């Protein structure tokens, strides 16, 4: 039976997991996860993005993820990769200001140009006016979290 598109073979994921689980603990740390992920530039994934994702998928709050958590995280990253590619209109492997604006508008955000500029400065680690894949994930996750906090804080409890 063929795997649905975007769902990697479990054996493949197990090989990736085991290759980065260098201490053979059955869990991987943020540092080990960083080695398993690629942002498309052959540079390590942004450590802050890795830390955020560990926090999202670490169900027992151990600071590490087991294989099942890793498989869920891998699917999450793969889904974001498809999203990233759909907004990277010029195929450059990064998101420029206009592409970021288009992505965030599609996600339902109505942000001012100055705020888009703030996001670009915050998540453009290269200083080239573009956002790489891992930083795009972080930008979107942080925006979503901020939206959630705003909603919670606005509730009359």
Describe it for me?
The protein contains 7 helices and 4 strands; from the N terminus they run H-E-H-H-E-H-E-H-H-E-H. The protein has 157 residues and is mainly alpha-helical. It starts with 9 loop residues before the first helix and ends with a helix. It has a single domain, classed as Recoverin, domain 1. The strands form 2 sheets. It has a two-stranded antiparallel ribbon. Strands 3-4 form a two-stranded antiparallel sheet.
- For the report, how would you describe the main beta sheet? 2 strands, antiparallel
Compute the number of strand runs.
4
**CATH hierarchy class name:** Mainly Alpha
How far apart are the first and last residues' alpha carbons, in Å? 51 Å
CATH topology: Recoverin, domain 1
Shape: elongated
Q: State mean pLDDT (0 to 100 scale).
A: 86
Q: What pattern of helices and strands is seen along the backbone?
A: HEHHEHEHHEH
Class from secondary-structure proportions: mainly alpha
Q: Give me the CATH architecture, please.
A: Orthogonal Bundle
Radius of gyration: 17 Å
Strand arrangement, major sheet:
1-2
Overall structural domain count: 1
Helix content: 55-70%
The CATH superfamily label reads EF-hand
How many helices? The count is 7
Strand content: 5-15%
Subcellular location: Cytoplasm
Domain EF-hand: 8-43, 75-110, 111-146
Main location: cytoplasm
Organism: Amphibalanus amphitrite (Striped barnacle)
């Amino acid at each position: 039976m063929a795997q649905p598109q975007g769902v990697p073979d479990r054996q493949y994921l197990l090989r990736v997991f085991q290759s980065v689980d260098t201490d053979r603990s059955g869990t991987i740390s943020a540092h080990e996860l960083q080695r398993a992920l690629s942002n498309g530039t052959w540079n390590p994934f942004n450590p802050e993005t890795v830390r955020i994702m560990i926090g999202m998928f670490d169900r027992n709050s151990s600071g590490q993820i087991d294989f099942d958590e890793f498989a869920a995280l891998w699917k999450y990253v793969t889904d974001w990769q498809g999203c990233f590619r759909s907004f990277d209109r010029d195929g450059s492997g990064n998101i420029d200001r206009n592409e970021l604006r288009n992505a965030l508008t599609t996600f339902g955000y109505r942000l001012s140009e100055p705020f888009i500029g703030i996001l670009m400065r915050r998540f453009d680690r290269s200083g080239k006016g573009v956002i790489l894949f891992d930083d795009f994930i972080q930008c979107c996750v942080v925006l979503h979290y901020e939206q959630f906090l705003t909603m919670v804080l606005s509730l009359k409890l």
